[in-house]
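Practice problem. Given the sequence and the SMILES for S-adenosylmethionine, write out the predicted structure.
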Amino acid sequence: MSEPAPFEIYLVATPGLEAPLCEEAIEAGFAEAKVVDGGVSFMGTWPDVWRANLTLRGATRVLARVASFRAMHLAQLDKRARKVEWSTLLRKDVPVTVEASCKRSRIYHAGAASQRVAKAIEEEFGAPVAEDAALRVMLRIEDDLVTISLDTTGASLHKRGFKEGVAKAPMRETMAAMFLRQCGYDGTQPVLDPMCGSGTFVLEAAEIALGLKPGRERDFAFEQLPSFDPKAWDKLRTPVPTNTPAVRFYGSDRDPGAIRMATENAARAGVSDWVSFEQQSVEKLEPPEGPPGIIIVNPPYGTRIGNKAPLVGLYRSLGTVIRAKFPGWRVGIITSDKDLARATGLNLELVEPTVLHGGLRVGLWRSKIVNKP
Ligand SMILES: C[S@@+](CC[C@H](N)C(=O)[O-])C[C@H]1O[C@@H](n2cnc3c(N)ncnc32)[C@H](O)[C@@H]1O
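Answer key:
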């Protein structure tokens, strides 16, 4: 039997976090991965698609770029879309939806373009097309070049499947993992989040240390494709013996509801033995026993919850307690406001580029090792 032909696999990144995602992909064995517009790309086959979805912590979704051709007008799009080998890509019993975007192209009407491709799929192959279908065929037309992708992920990859409790303004797991990476976290250092909300940073850090794959329990859209091999998939995601971390992971928050949620989320993720959550205001923060590690935190940013003025005091207290009690630790603070970052009095540098999240530019402000007071 001949080897299956590789195709382009495209990882959608959080805007601004393409570089750490690319690093992660290379470390995961996708050696040819490179940063491209809005994401990371490499060539691979279906098992690579499954593994990327299962293991990469920083990708938002994984697209399989399955066809590409030029089309100058809708009739040409219609004709060429009918020539795509849909029978190798889709199943007759699985409904799909078609989404389109057009840029700098003679075909400029996305609705008309998606309708042509939907019709081609229905008439040439016979798969049902429904607007609310879970499986997405994505059509991108740029400079008259049509690229057809399958969204192999389904619900965004930040939904690991363990977090039922969500605090106010939660951090996305995908972003949390990339910010931890940018702070130099490699699974060996203790991690502390003193405003942990639902516990995203603490859980991600513990899972990384234990070697748990982020997609180990959830469903993926690729399971609905004819290329899916359930046996090979089971083998891929069967838990391998996990690491035993030498350190622990800590979260605190002044809100008892947040601590309850974080504790429940940790239990669902199977990391309870490695994490401690405590209700406590940041002003009372004490270093845990053991070696210094990384403090990572996204305090309220004013524009999202509450106003900026009272927050200056909160950031100042955070900085004061860290300087007084955490010599030897490194700090990463995620905020949208440079004045608030500066109010900590810590020697922080902004990691560029900043990150677009919920319509807001947020940045990781990172310190070197905190000096003795
Ligand atoms: C933006 S949220 C953090 C979200 C969290 N990273 C997550 O993923 O769910 C900010 C958190 O700071 C907490 N907080 C605000 N003031 C605090 C204080 N003085 N001490 C401790 N926690 C505080 C809030 O209760 C809230 O949970």
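Check your answer against the key. The pocket of S-adenosylmethionine is lined by residues 167-171, 195-198, 200, 253-255, 258, 281-282, 298-300, 314 (CB under 6 Å).
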